[in-house]
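Posting here for the record, re: protoporphyrin IX containing FE.
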Amino acid sequence: MKKVTRTLLVSACLLAAGPAMATTLYDDLGGKEGIAVVVDGFINEISYDQNIVKFFAQTDIKRLREKLEEQLCMVSDGPCEYTGDSMEDVHAGMQITTGEFNRVVELLQNAMNQAGVAYPVQNRLIKRLAPMRPEIIHR
Ligand code: HEM
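Prediction output follows.
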C-alpha cells in the first residue's frame, strides 16, 4: 500500500474512533455502578463520624442515597437528572460551618479512595461540587 494511502486510512480510522474515545467524568467514575459504590461508602463514612452523623438523625437514608446518586451522575455528565431539592433548600437552617463542610468533602474523598477512584478523577468531581459551597454553608 502506498504511504499516502496508508496515512489517509489511519487518519480516517482515528477520526471515526474519536467520539467513542471521549470519556466523561461519569465514565471515569465507573458509571452508575461506580457511583453507587462511592455513595454507599460516603454514607458509611458519614455514619462513623460523630460530629457529622448528628445532622442526619431525621434523614430518610434511602432517599439520600438515591438523590446523591442522581446528583453525582448529573454533575459528572452522566445520563441522569437530579430530582432532589435545591442545595439551598436542603441545607437551610442547618448552620453548617466551613469546618463541617470540609469534613464532609473529606469523607467523600475517603469513600472514593476505598472505591479505587484515581486522584485526578476525584479532583475533577470535587471541582464540580465546589461551586455548591456557598449554597450549603451558614444557611
Ligand atoms: C458538596 C457538599 C454536599 C453536597 C453535594 C450535598 C448534597 C446533598 C443532597 C443531594 C442531598 C439530598 C437532597 C434531597 O433529599 O432532595 C443532601 C441532603 C442532606 N445533606 Fe447535604 N450535601 C453536601 C454537604 C453537606 C454537609 C456539609 C452537611 C452537614 C454537615 C450536609 C447535610 C445534609 C443533610 C442532613 C441532608 C438530609 C436532609 C433531610 O433529611 O431532608 N450536607 N445533601
